[in-house]
Amino acid sequence: MDTAIYIGNEKMQMVCGAKKSGSLVIDTYAQIDLPEGAVLNGVITNEELFIMSFRQLMTEHPDMLTERYGCSSAATRF
After folding, report:
1. How far is the C-alpha of 51 from the C-alpha of 68, rounded, in Å?
2. What is the pLDDT of residue 61?
3. Contacts 24+ apart (CB under 8 A), 32-36
4. Distance between CA atoms of 18 and 26, rounded to whole angstroms?
5. Among the four residues 23, 45, 47, 62, which has the most C-beta atoms within 10 Å?
6. CB 34 within 8 A of CB 52
7. 12 burial class (0-12, 13-18, 19+ CB within 10 angstroms)?
């Protein structure tokens, strides 16, 4: 399994999946709204707000922090 994180101006999205038989199979998907001012044009402009949001995403979806999805134990210390 692989994990991808998309960070936009308004939302952060995390998807876990794998390629199987030539197709992409999504196993888990999570999304959280980012507070205004946390990210602007791909740049983290308020690190505190961004980290708060990332931690919230991880708290709401702890299953996405497992090695099954390609996350190391270092991700839990963020």
Report:
1. 23
2. 86
3. 32/56, 32/57, 32/60, 34/7, 34/8, 34/9, 34/10
4. 7
5. 45
6. no
7. buried
On the 0-12 / 13-18 / 19+ scale of CB atoms within 10 A, 59 is exposed
Tell me the average pLDDT across 51-72.
Answer: 78
Report the alpha-carbon distance of residue 74 to residue 72 in Å, rounded.
5
Residue type, 41: N
Pairwise CA distance, residues 7 & 19, whole Å: 22
pTM of the model: 0.74
Confidence of residue 58 (pLDDT cuts 50, 70, 90): confident
